[in-house]
Here is the input.
Amino acid sequence: MESVNNKTAAQNHDQTAIPQVLIVGGGHVGLSFALLLAHHGMTSTLLEKGRYPDISPDADPKRSHYLDSRNTALSRRTVQIYQEIGLWSALQSHACRIDSVQISEQGSFGAATLNKDEEQVESFGQVMENAWLGRELLLAAKASPLITLIDGASVQEVSETGDQQVSVGYTLSDNGADDTAMHTAKARLLVACDGRDSSVRQLLGISTVTYDYQQTAIVGVVETDKGHEHAAIERFSPAGPLAVLPLTDADGDGNDAQQQGHRRSVVWICPKGEEEQYLNDDAHFLQTLQQAFGQRAGTFIAAGRRGAYPLTRVLAQRQVQGRCVIMGNAAHTLHPVAGQGFNLCMRDAHVLAKMLKHQATHGGDIGNANLLKRYETARQRDQKRVIRFCDAVVHGFTHPNPLVKFARNGALVAFDKLPNIKPLVANYAMGLKA
Ligand SMILES: Cc1cc2nc3c(=O)[nH]c(=O)nc-3n(C[C@H](O)[C@H](O)[C@H](O)COP(=O)(O)OP(=O)(O)OC[C@H]3O[C@@H](n4cnc5c(N)ncnc54)[C@H](O)[C@@H]3O)c2cc1C
Here is the structure.
């Protein structure tokens, strides 16, 4: 979006009817939430600090790398949500099915496999490059008449105006030259999707409980000589949990029978401070992967650009205050071990959008304190379960004690053999059970 458009939108904003919802932060959660609201016929203005690339549906049919170099495993539930709002057809061409999940530990006997045929599911989820997900979300948001996007807008102030409205003050940056003038936007409700270090959360004085895992995730795309056969391989090493996920071929359509299937997404977790060697030296990175995975994925033959993400868990002490809701990583930033963070955010966004729609349809105030409290309470169980699960996996599988190691390998064997456990775990992983 060009800055001139931003300014026009910003200047026009106070003169037109206020939107129902103000969303701060236009990452994948903020954009998805705006689209969910639009699906329910609700208006929103989304303020994003960064500058979006100037993309159009026709331009750059391959990948336009913009937000980050990561890949996201979308659960079955997330796919269902995108289907519900009519976005899955655009996303699907660059999604790659997960048909099986193989779990094992380096240097140990335990192993378990989840298979889609045994569990009688269509797939366990779909893997998508964030670049493609972000591109399609942005195109859809730009095309919606119910969403006003203002990028280059950094929120600096939040206040409740007392007339059933919440107001934010924001500055605009224009091609690097900062515009120091404070602009104002108002709505009935503010939803903060401004990430782990959320400014809105801080402005509201909501504290967090944080935990530094002392780990860094190295993420990127690799190629193997063996086709991925739609398998997700989760491997636990002394350094931390590692994952190799199936990806589409470079020209997309990972669910098509013609796929070669040699591209895979890698999440390699190393102790904090050791990341440089994996980021800059392709040969070393490939050799390290080979050692950790053995021949499970075949031979690692090429590595693409990689990014490093320091891992911390950040949990907001409250997710609702006045007419404000904290959502996405701003509410709960999790370890990526089980690919649950974004999927959990999508379930939050789906529930809130539905509750707001119901309230609006009945002529109620969408910033009503009881309504927002009900939302916060409704989401607690699912959030707590996912947070506990991620931590149990991280700590349980990296504990060096030989007895703990023996016990967890026994548990993996039991998990693989005992009836009734797999469907339960599979349902949780797919986000189908809260
Ligand atoms: C290595 C790794 C792998 C992962 N893999 C998976 C996976 O496979 N499956 C899964 O479910 N999850 C996964 N996750 C988690 C997932 O990436 C996050 O849950 C998700 O990105 C959260 O998105 P968000 O929009 O809440 O936050 P962000 O992506 O951080 O977006 C926040 C946005 O707010 C903007 N912003 C910040 N401050 C302001 C301000 N003051 N004013 C206006 N805008 C502002 C920022 O510019 C940014 O665009 C992974 C995470 C990591 C680190």
